[in-house]
Every structure is written in structure tokens, then in C-alpha cells.
Amino acid sequence: MSVFQIILLVVVVLILVGLFAYLIRIVPQAKAYVIERLGAYHTTWNTGIHILVPFVDRVANKVTLKEVVKDFAPQPVITKDNVTMQIDTVVYFQITDPKLYTYGVVGPITAIENLTATTLRNIIGDLELDETLTSRDIINTKMRAILDEATDPWGIKVNRVEVKNIIPPRDIQEAMEKQMRAERERRESILRAEGEKRSNILTAEGEKEAMVLRANAKKEAMIAEAEGQARAMERIYEAQARGIEMIKDANPTKEYLSLKSLETYEKMADGKATKIVVPSEMQNMASFLTSAREILVDDAAKDALDEVIKPKKG
């Protein structure tokens, strides 16, 4: 085999390999190929191996079937109360029909962006500034419903729309910051006042409990002291009762009883009392002293009684 034949064989093999590679197409997962035949839509290839007819068929578009996330630039919008602000959105969509996506609109992503901007302006135009700042969920829901319906002819399903940032003018931002600062200070003052109130309540409750405890302790001490005094008085009265009982059992003489009475009068007139008690039976005093002399054994005491009795006898 000559060199020319070898070169020709190699060229033929390369052409066949290239043609085979061109004709055999593998569609990966989550992809779809739109095929045109002689310039018109022919079919849509899904995941798998497919054969392309040379010079007749061509791949018009390769479409991803996964969910696509597009973050659009901030758009100037005007609220109902004529406040201009910047709002940017994030759109989550998915291609459900590759044919409609390919032939339904020129530049589907640009079309979605413009549709999002106009829809956002229409919705914000019906809201005031305060409503716009506090109604993100309402705005998201309305935009998703409108965009999903508008993109159906394009083979697109809008799954979710999120308002990412709402940027009001600088002067309004400063006013909002002042308002939030004032609100935080007000809440701080309320919390501080509530804390002081709670502290005062706890202090008062503590003082109340302490006073109750002191009062209970004082009461118990007084009760214990009174019980002690009562027991002491009972012991004294019991001792006196036993003494009286013993004297009664001993059957004392009249003279002894008179002497004990005299001792009692002596104690009562010891100088501490403010009154002097004088016996009513003064006429019997001499006989009482004579009887007392008889029971005394001390000579000095007898002599003292004689000095008292003698004037009576004279």
C-alpha cells in the first residue's frame, strides 16, 4: 500500500469519526434540545442519545429545565404619596415548555425583567410609603401571580418573586432612623421604669416579710416570757399554798398567828410603802404583845417587849 493510499484512508476514517460525532448527540440530565428540520420546528429532545440527520436537522436551542434565579437591578418606583424609591427583585422561574420558550418571545430573560419592572411600578403606585415598607408579602404574592400568568405563553412558570431591597430617599431614611431611635429610647425607658418598679416591689415585699418575721419573733418572745412568768408565779403560789397547808396541818397557836401578822405589818411599814396600815383591834394590842413575849426565847426580845408593855400596865 502506497503512502497516498494510507493518507487517504486516514482522512476517510477521520471524516467518518467526525460525522459520527456530529450525528450522535447525547442530551444531559435537566436539559432539552429544540430541533429544527429544514428551518422549521421538528421535535424536542429530552435526556438520552439521539441521531441528528446531517444537512437537514439542526439544534435550534439548548434549554435548561432547572429552576433559574435572576436578580434584577434596582428599579425606580413612585408610591401613591409621591415618594420615589429604588426596589430590586429576585425572580425564581422554571422553563416548562422548551418550544414556547424558544419561539414565544425574543430574549425571554429581558422580557421577564421588563415585565417585572412594570408590574412592580403598578403595584407600588397603589401603595403609600408606610404600606410599601410593611407589605413585602403582599407585593411578592401579587407579582408572582401576575408574572406567572403573563409568562405562560412563553413556556415559563414563575415559582416565586421576592422583593430584595427597598431603598427610600436619603431624607426619609434619616427620618426613619430618628423615629426608630426615639422608639428604642422609649422602649428602653419603659423597660427601665418596669425594672425599677419591680425592684421597689421586691424591696417592699422583703421589708414586709422582715417586719412580719420580727413581729412574730417578738410575739413568740413575749409569749415565752409570759409563760415563764406564769410558771414562776404558779411555783410561788404552789409554794405558798404548800406553806399554808403545812402551817394548817401543824395546828399553830393563836399567839403564833398573831406574831406572823406582826411580822407582816413590819414588812408593810418598812419605809417603802406610802401608807401605814393600823390594826383595827388596837385594844387587844397589849394582850397580843404579852402573848408574843411568852413564846419568845430571846432575852433581848423579851426586854424590848417589856418596854412596850409597861406603859400599858401603868
Automatic annotation (TrEMBL):
Record's subcellular location: Membrane
Assigned keywords, A-Z: Membrane, Transmembrane, Transmembrane helix
GO cellular component terms listed in the entry, alphabetical order: plasma membrane; side of membrane
Keyword Transmembrane annotated: yes
Domain spans labelled Band: 22-180
Transmembrane segments: 6-27
Record's bilayer topology term: Single-pass membrane protein
One Pfam family from the record: Band_7
Protein family (similarity comment): Belongs to the band 7/mec-2 family.
Record's protein name: SPFH/Band 7/PHB domain protein
